[in-house]
Amino acid sequence: MYVSARGQVEFPPGYTPPNLPHDDDDSRPAKRQRKSRVMSERKDLDAHDKAPDSVKIWYKRWQRMESAAFNTRFDIIDCGSDPDGKTFPKHMLREVSEPGFADVGKVFGEFMGGDSDVGHGLKTPRVFEVKSMPGLLIYPNILPQPLQLRLLDNLLHRDLSNPQHQTNVHLHYNVPYGAPQPHASGHNASFFDPSARTLPIKPKTSHTALDVPRMLDKKLRWMTLGGQYDWTSKTYPARPPPPFPEDVKNLVQGLFPMKAEAAIVNLYSPGDTLSAHRDVSEACAQPLVSISLGCEAIFIAAIEDEPAPSSATAVSGDPAAPPPATTATSTKGGRGGLGKLRSAVLRLRSGDAVLMSGEARYAWHGVPRVAANTCPGFMRSWPAGTESVDGVEEDRYEGYRGWMAGKRVNLNVRQMFADIAAEGEGVGGGDVDVLAAMGKGTVAGAEAGA
Ligand SMILES: O=C(O)CCC(=O)C(=O)O
Ligand SMILES: [Fe+2]
Questions:
Q1: Which of 137, 203, 312, 388 is deepest in the core (most CB within 10 A)?
Q2: What residue's CA is closest to ligand 1, atom 8?
Q3: Which of this chain's residues are annotated to bind Fe cation (predicted)?
Q4: Ligand number nearest to the C-alpha of 300
């Protein structure tokens, strides 16, 4: 049972699909009007709107940029991998004080099932807000290394082998599952297990044959958890979604001010991209969190403060030039104008989280680049490793040793329905002021790196 953004108790309420640009979906979810304390204006947002030309041009510039530039450009927000945060770019970030975390050590310890000291002696993670885009928060390196590995195990061994979780492969293939594993809490054999290697994946239509190694190496681009969008009927099914994996839910809810109700696990190889889009299909404006694992990515976010007055024409240009923050009046020759952009470029590393809230919740965003050879050393050999089976250490998943060295995995978690408590007076339309939810409702005057 859920409560819709309009306060009606129903299931599922106006349940509309997440807006994935690698979807070829052409249904038109109902436009919704929302109000937010943190957004100065909520326009009708349609999941099928195409990114404005200003965003597309800017995205392309980052897609085409030389990799070497990522180390030298001053306009990339790169918090580095320094846990003390000495390298945080102060000119673009402000530190959010007292983020009101639950006891992170406890949250991490519980996620690890109590068999790890990962939660011991941890400093409170630092949180930064992008100055140019209030509500866009970065939690650099928030996940400890053993927890990142455990999260990969849970998502890709356990959750991927759960037939209730849809993937892009299911759109075109009948996906078979391995036998339930006596030693792995009853879940089916991981697709990385040697026993799954020869599972017959049958095309539904005229698609080319596929086997498990190729599925894992190239074909698998996303998996859904919790709310499962039905890509064929272009709706959410009227039946309740499968339960959101409990440990992942507790981790997300223990760290971030939101409920974990639906997630997309995106898988990228270097060269894969995610085009500019907005995630506007959820029935509430609560924050969305995005957790990065594996190879580094360039993530861009943009808000068009002033839309173009007429259809714009692409301008060619130096890929290293700043974003096209041009107004219509600044373009010449009757070519039409580009909207005026406010933008942020983030270099995301394994263990980083990004929270999109407030006006940044509905920013255009995308991943123009995933950088090869940037998976951190501790993760490169995943899934190969040893596992204790009945007290005996066994080598596991050797056949895929190094798979993760060529991958980026992004866990993108959304709250779909407004909190009951947030309905009604005081919190407009169930939206939430994330900084208030996190602590004192203020942003510290302290600058990053202070
Ligand atoms: O991979 C990422 O960092 C972003 C993914 C995303 O925007 C999405 O799944 O909607
Ligand atoms: Fe997104």
A1: 137
A2: 412
A3: 277, 279, 365
A4: 1
Establish whether residue 264 lines the binding site of ligand 1, counting it when its CB lies within 6 angstroms of any ligand atom: yes
Domains of the chain plus CATH, in order, are 2-167+221-438 (2.60.120.590)
* Nearest atom in ligand 1 to 292's CA: 3
Ligand 1 contact via 299 beta carbon (within 6 Å): yes
Q: Is 288 in the pocket of ligand 1 (CB under 6 A)?
A: no
Q: Is 279 in the pocket of ligand 1 (CB under 6 A)?
A: yes
CB 44 within 8 A of CB 29: no
In angstroms, what is the span from residue 264 Cα to ligand 1's centroid? 8
Reported ipTM exceeds the 0.95 cut: yes
Q: What pairs with residue 277 in β-bridges?
A: 365
R_g of the chain, CA atoms, integer Å: 22
Tell me which residues have their CB within 5 A of the ion that is ligand 2. 279
**297 Cα nearest atom in ligand 1:** 3
CA dist 92 and 156 (Å) reads 35
* Tokens of residue 224, six digits: 């859904």
C-alpha 208, offset from chain centre? 30
C-alpha–C-alpha distance, residues 321 and 343, integer Å: 13
